[in-house]
From TrEMBL:
InterPro entries according to UniProt: Glyco_hydro/deAcase_b/a-brl (IPR011330), Hopanoid_biosynth-assoc_HpnK (IPR017836), YdjC-like (IPR006879)
Necessary cofactors: Mg(2+)
Pfam families in the record: YdjC
Protein name in UniProt: Hopanoid biosynthesis-associated protein HpnK
Source taxon at top rank: Bacteria
Length: 279
């Protein structure tokens, strides 16, 4: 893809996970620099998140597919090889990745769950800005293929490319493959990502540093996990996350000043639908 004029997508993941996340997303959008949120359609506070998104129609909202370390949309009896008796996915992603490759029955159930999550998002009435997967599970080729094939009829136009500077050598080939497949499929994506190494601790200092060293060309995405509470109060799977510090960063007056300066220097801000068009 040819280098594009500079633009930045600032995303909150896990929208719908907890009411404190939803409150933070709304506040960071109205009072801060947030432009975008990724919705977990099967999460406990999804209905509240959808209502808040509709009350803020300029907020871009995408689908945050949950296929690990979270709750499924379909009942356990429909996808018994994917979830436990309570309908929860496990966190052993390497093991599950091999099962997706090797077991046709598991792949059928996986496709059914992905379809159900797209259907739930469509039922919300929200415009689909983008799609990504919890814990970047769309790096798995099987999940990526299903995401594209199933998502097209639902208006899929863009997918997050989790490519950060200093990517580990073992991950680089997977990211290159993902980018090639998205380009070949005519799906938009960001040129680079910031936030992977700071996940759960993207405070004001880290956000100011990121905004001060943005590339002069290309569409970037910064993603965070803001909430009004922190750690296990939001998610037992993220006891060390400083969610409230990330909300403070998004609404910081210093960050707002840098954001304004970037606009003056030609940076565009928005969602994937605004900036990360298909090649």
């Amino acid at each position: 893809m040819a280098a594009r004029d500079p633009g930045l997508i600032i995303t909150a993941d896990d929208f719908g996970l907890h009411v404190s996340v939803n409150l933070a997303v709304e506040r960071a959008f109205r009072e801060g620099v947030l432009t975008t949120a990724s919705l977990m359609v099967g999460a406990p506070a999804a209905a509240d998140a959808i209502a808040r998104a509709k009350a803020n129609p300029s907020l871009r909202v995408g689908l945050h597919l949950v296929l690990a370390d979270g709750r499924a949309t379909l009942p356990p009896r429909a996808i018994p090889d994917l979830v436990d008796a309570d309908g929860n996915f496990g966190a052993r992603m390497v093991r599950e990745g091999f099962r997706f490759f090797l077991l046709p029955a598991v792949r059928r159930q996986l496709a059914a769950e992905i379809s159900a999550q797209f259907e739930a998002f469509a039922a919300s009435g929200l415009a689909l800005d983008h799609v990504n997967a919890h814990r970047h599970f769309h790096l798995h080729p099987t999940i990526l293929s299903m995401m594209i094939d199933i998502g097209r009829p639902f208006g899929l136009r863009a997918i997050r490319l989790p490519r950060e500077a200093h990517t580990p050598a073992w991950l680089a080939p997977w990211l290159a493959l993902l980018a090639r497949r998205l380009a070949a499929a005519g799906i938009g994506y960001n040129d680079y990502t910031l936030g992977i190494r700071q996940s759960g601790r993207f405070d004001e200092h880290a956000l100011l540093a990121a905004l001060s060293h943005l590339p002069a060309r290309g569409i970037g995405e910064i993603y965070l996990h803001p909430a009004t509470q922190s750690g296990s109060a939001v998610s037992r799977a993220a006891p060390g996350y400083r969610h409230a510090d990330e909300l403070a960063a998004l609404t910081s007056p210093r960050v707002l000043r840098v954001h304004h300066m970037l606009r003056q220097h030609g940076f565009r801000f928005g969602g994937f639908a605004d900036l990360a068009h298909a090649p």
